[in-house]
Amino acid sequence: MLSISIITENNNMRTKMPETPVTIASAMQNYLQLVGQSRSQNTAVTYAKALKIFLEMLRENDLAPETSPVANLTEDLLADFAVYLKDYTPATERLYIQAAQGFYKFLAAERLSEINLPRLDLLLKQRVRKPGIRLPQFPAEEIVRVLEFVSNPENLSIQEESAQNDKLRALRDRAFLLTLADTGLRVHEACALRRGDIDWNEGRAVIIGKGDKQAVIRFSTRSLQALRDYLSLRASLDGGSGKPLASLPLFARHDKGAGKKVKPITTTTGRNIVDERVRQALGDSAGGNITPHSFRHYFVTTVLRGSGNLKLAQELARHANIQVTQRYAHLSDDELDKGYHDIFEKK
């Protein structure tokens, strides 16, 4: 219950009279709890951060969230929040406004405050900046070199005399990088894969991706072979786990902390795998220049350049908006040079 109500009778009309007004802070807490139940963890964390900044703005405007009734929130305050966020990037501004706007819609739906939603939309449309189109920046040639490096077992120090965990880490890392590059999976999606998710005959996996949407992921021959090599070496570890193979993580930890248990890698481990192998392939100076998401950029660009089909790239990358995919459809300087000379020099 958000408030305690007393029901009074007056001229056969039943009217609810709020005894204790709901405060801004308590209403926001209820909203964030709802977001946590219905959205992903990352979304919930981002919304909480955005609304924390919104509360800071309210305090600076002498509106104490802990004591002020939620009915004191107006459309103009959210419009002021857009101005308050001008020191942030346009993309961050829009994301934080989206979180605060969701809170306002929650208030309207729960009838906690008289919010004029059409006016709110108009005010935000006038004040919120549109983010510019940013072309994905990633070192494509370097990623190719990294993939070639990890594809050669000798480069990963997989020797007969190597410790078992070292061998497992080497084969896992190779399979992990090839999977990122050839499937377009996001790092948290790859880390969450289970052995039973993969249909080895079809070379596919069904996952729950961004926005809790189900999606089909396709694997290349080289990524499937790398996975088979890794899981073959891991057979005794998996067999001794006492758990069904299908329930075990596709990419497991191989460190002292895991021991003989088969535990999934975290997204932090996934990032560390990329950083370590990039440094091995390209040198320490390359550390930080290539991230797990760089392999997703590589995947989308490879699909586009191989097919020229924007819709195909959108579907394989699982972009909700084709405009996101279009950012990858830019030509390199070499391609522009070639196109120019093909037109003007071949007369």
How would you characterize this protein structure?
The structure is a single chain. The longest helix has 20 residues. The protein has 347 residues and is mainly alpha-helical. Helix content is 54%, strand content 7%. The strands form 2 sheets. The chain has a 3-stranded antiparallel beta sheet with strand order 3-4-5, with no helix packed on it. Strands 1-2 form a two-stranded antiparallel ribbon.
Number of helices: 15
End-to-end Cα distance, whole Å, is: 79 Å
Q: What's the CATH class of the largest domain, please?
A: Mainly Alpha
Would you tell me the overall average pLDDT?
85
Based on DSSP secondary structure assignment, what is the total number of beta strands?
5
* Total separate domains: 2
Q: Which spans have pLDDT < 50 for at least 5 consecutive residues?
A: 1-18
Order of helices and strands: EEHHHHHHHHEEEHHHHHHH
The gyration radius over C-alpha positions equals: 26 Å
Largest sheet: 3 strands, antiparallel
Q: Which structural class should the secondary elements be placed in?
A: mainly alpha
Which term fits the overall shape? globular
The CATH H-level superfamily of the largest domain is Intergrase catalytic core
Tell me what portion of residues adopts beta-strand conformation. 5-15%
